[in-house]
């Protein structure tokens, strides 16, 4: 029982040969891996009993034998309506593939709407994220101020607002009949919480340009996760264009941020956290894409995922005693309160656009839009702060747009070819 604290105590020193900020070296309890395990233990205290209850109701054949006041709730959480099987046997695509009869102009407008909403939400969110995680609050001439360090509380703030917005929208508007068992949302919820936590936590160990660079290379992991989670098939040109987009954006980002400060050097811990973010985020988008095979709206998806996100995060925060401490920090610093609320608003709006985009165009198209967002963030920085774009950076932009043009051209050719196929032959499913 004494081995785990000793191992965790030695990990910060083993994580990197570079210096880590002194605030991160106060104790082994401040190290990210220890906090990750503590958070995971909090989630497990909810997941494990929930799993046992689901297995209990299924083994008891509760759907046929159950009755009473709790029956509708248990049926919705454990069994659902199972309406998706009707749509899978005939090989049809999920609801987002239905607008095939709509005009090209309408589809282009939808794509531009999704892209603009995602850009506005997450460009603002990115600026606030860096401010909250890397700067101090309450600094004066005599007081250096203090940093906010609990990434999980920020995740909770984001999810509670998204849950409220989605719940109100579902209550005030007519929604499709819900068929998915509620527990299936917990998978996307858990991976979404972990990816967000890794993203916030990584900024303590790496520079912001490095984090942006990692996000720009997510297309291929998302496609690989699509094969594992949704059993999707891709054409060679989809792999080629995904690789070209990642390479082009990477060229631009690297050439636009050649100078690094000593305080933001890349560390091994930061690289591991970024890898965790990419893996968890890739799973989240593909699992949500698979859930859309049930007849549900994007807002219902948002509500279902954030119900579990709020449950997991508030449970873990209460078990750690961190919720009250974070509230006290908000009371001491009104500026942080304003930033946290605006951060949550951008996150909630961004989630609406995420679900709608995945529902309409699939996980890979969504990732391409978010990849381009990284380039727009650097372009915005160049316009505001006067950074110059190098030749390599301009070449990277050209590669990105060339890849996008190639992807659009190849997709249109595939659509024309699929229309000419015999009735019994089914084309390769795309995202």
In short:
The protein is mainly α and 431 residues long. It has one domain. The protein is 71% helix and 0% strand.
Shape: globular
Please give the number of β-strands: 0
* Structural Rg: 23 Å
Q: Level of helix content?
A: over 70%
Which band does the percent of strand residues land in? under 5%
| Largest sheet report | none
Coarse structural class: mainly alpha
Oligomer: single chain
Question: Could you say how many structural domains there are in total?
Answer: 1
Summarize model confidence as the mean pLDDT.
75
Write down the secondary-structure element order.
Answer: HHHHHHHHHHHHHHHHH
Count of alpha and pi helical runs:
17
Unreliable stretches, pLDDT < 50, 5 or more residues?
1-26, 83-101, 257-265, 423-431
Straight-line N-to-C gap: 48 Å
Describe the structure.
- This protein is an all-alpha fold and about 425 residues long.
- It has one domain (about 30-80, about 115-135, about 150-415).
- Helices cover about 70% and strands about 0% of the residues.
- The protein contains 17 helices and no strands.
- The protein has helices at about 5-15, 30-60, 60-65, 70-80, 85-90, 105-135, 150-170, 185-200, 210-215, 220-230, 235-255, 270-290, 300-320, 320-330, 335-360, 365-385, 390-420.
- Helix 2 packs across helix 13 (about 300-320) and helix 14 crosses helix 15 (about 335-360).
- It is globular.
- The relative contact order is 0.15.
